[in-house]
Amino acid sequence: MKTLSAKNAAALDQDLMSVGGFSLDQLMELAGLSVSQAVYRIHHPNRGKSILVACGPGNNGGDGLVAARHLWHYGYQPIIYYPKPGKNELYQRLTTQLKNLDIPFTEDFTSAMNKSHHIVDAIFGFSFSGEVREPFAAVIEAMKKTSLEVTSVDAPSSWNIEDGPPDLGPGKDFHPTALVSLTAPKPLTKWFHGRHFVGGRFLTPQIAQKYDLDLPQYEGVDQIVEIDQSEGKL
After folding, report:
1. Please, which residues have CB within 8 angstroms of residue 68's CB and are 6 or more apart in sequence?
2. 178, 118 Cβ separation under 8 angstroms
3. Which SS3 state, helix, strand or coil, does residue 74 take?
């Protein structure tokens, strides 16, 4: 399946919010819905309802906040780790929505992880670069070592969009159970060998053609499609 570079991913987002007519709120809602559906498919509530959602300060974290809300409505019991809340008014509204559902927020990732059945990694997305700083370095290290299944949003946190896992730092040898590629897979998927989903049921054929993307065939009301990693096919 064709991938989307960092440069094109940023440009595509701008196209969606200009000629596409979408707002950031809408795109984040669709992304978080896709993530929630992937978690439901990977970790059914019958296997344990406690889901720890680790959110970063940017849009990836916003996707995680939206996913947590949907997971609550599916019958899960999400716990939010959000140590550096984004200052954008959008993130504040997403946080309010969760608090109105009495979804707990925690500052102790390790303690919450020990009580959880699954982890959503929504810390850093495709635009991440540079060094991982605390408190996220310790969180990525913990996700790397845990026996729990981890679902990453768009990119395993701290991976480079083009070059995959870092050679040094907490993200070295961090290989989550599952990955939800938003809009389209990124080049880093070359190094990913877990369960891989694509969520982006909002692209028009015109935008897909402009960026030379393969539009997956979504079934029914599904917002995600699982990719056969052995063949790189849907």
Report:
1. 32, 51, 53, 78, 80, 98, 103, 120
2. no
3. coil
Go through the chain and tell me how many residues it has.
234
CA angle 59–137–179, rounded 5-degree value? 50
| Interatomic CA distance for residues 62 and 64, integer angstroms | 5
Over the stretch 5-49, which tens digit does the pLDDT of each residue have? 989 999 999 999 999 999 999 999 999 999 999 999 999 999 999
pLDDT in tens, 181-224: 999 999 999 999 999 999 989 999 999 999 999 888 999 999 99
CB 182 within 8 A of CB 63: yes
Provide the β-strand partners of residue 106. 81
Q: 195-199 and 149-153 as β-strands: parallel, antiparallel, unpaired?
A: unpaired
81 touches 110 (CB < 8 A): no
Q: Cα 194 to chain center, whole Å?
A: 14
Cα separation, 14 vs 115, whole angstroms: 39
The count of other CB atoms within 10 Å of the CB of residue 49 is: 18
